[in-house]
Amino acid sequence: MPTNLFSLLCCSLLAALALSPALAQQQQEQELAKLQQQIQLTERQLKQQQQQLEQAEQQLQQSDRALAKASAAMHSTEQQRQQLIGQEQKLNQQKTELQQRLAQQQQLLASQLKSAYSLGQHDYSRMLLNQQDAGKLERVLSYYQYFNSARLAQLKQLNETIAELQQVLAELADKQQQLADTLRTLQQQQQQLQSAKASQQQALAALQTTLTQQGRQLDYLRQNEASLQATLEELRKRAQQSLELAGLSGQKGTLNWPLKGTLLQRFGESRQGGMSSRGILIQSSEGATVHAIADGQVIYADWLKGYGWVIVLDHGNGYMSLYGHNQNLLKQPGARISAGEGIALAGMSGGQASAGLYFEIRNKGEAVNPLQWLNKSR
Question: Can you give the residue ranges of the M23ase beta-sheet core domain (predicted)?
C-alpha cells in the first residue's frame, strides 16, 4: 500500500474515532430532550385530569348542598303544614262545641221567653191598681224579676258564645288561608327539589365519567376511605373528652335499625373497585327519616367526600355510629339525641347511585359488623 494512501486512511479513521463521542453525546441529548417533553406532557395531562376530577367533585358537592337546602326548606314547610292542620282540627272542634252550646242556649232562652209570655197573660196592671191579693201580687213580681234576671243572664251567655264563635271562625279562616299559602309554597319547593335532584344526577354522571375515563375508581375510593378514617380518628379523640354516655355494651342484637329498607351491601362485602365495605348499605326512598340507633350526642354533621352528608353520633365508651349519603341533616353538632329520634333524611349524596343510607358502627375506632348489633326484625 502506498505511503500516501495509508496516511489518508489513518487520518480518516482517527477523524471518525474523534467524532463518535460527539455523535453519541448528541443522540443522548436528543433522547433526553424527548424524554423531558414526554414527562412534561404527562404532567400536564395528569394536572388536567386532576383539575377535571376536582371540578366534577365540586359540582357534585354543590348539587348536594343545593338539594339539601331545598330538602330542608321543604321539610320545614311540611312541619308547618302539619302544625296548621292540627290547629285547624282543634278550631273545627271548638266551632262544633260552640255551635252546640249556642243551640242549647237559644233553646233555653226560647223556653224562658215562653214562660215569661205565659206569666204575662195575668192582668198584672189590674192586680197592681186594685190591690187584689197582695200575696199573689208579690209572687208574680218575684217571678217577673226571676225570669228577667235569668233571661238577661242567658242573653249575656248567648252573646259571649256568639262572639267566641265569631273569633274561632275568623281564626279558622286565617289558618285555612295560611294552609293554602303553605301548600303553594310546598309545591314550589317540590319543583325546586326536583330541579336540584336533576342537577345532582348530572353531577354524579359527570364524576363517574371522569373516573372511568381516567381509570381512577379504585384510587378515588381509597382516598375517600382514608379521608373518612382520618375524620373518625379525630372524632374519636374528641369523643373521649365529651359528656359521659352509656355506650352500646349489652345492647348487641337489640338495637333498632336506623332505616327501613332493603339491605344492598353487607359488612365486609366487596365494594366497587374491590375494596371491602366497613359498613352496610340500606336502600330506601328519598326523604325517608333516618333514626338514631341509641342515645348519643352529635359529634359530626357535614358533607364528606365520597359519603355526602354524614352525621356521626358518640354513644360513649368508645362507641360511635355513622350515617352517610343523606339528603339532608336534621341535627347539628353538640345536640343530645335519644334512641329512635330522627337525625337525617335518606338520600344519595356523595355520589351514591340509588337512594339509601350507608351505616357504620365503630368501637374504639375499629369498624364492627352492624348486623350483629341490630335486631333481626326491620
Answer: 277-370
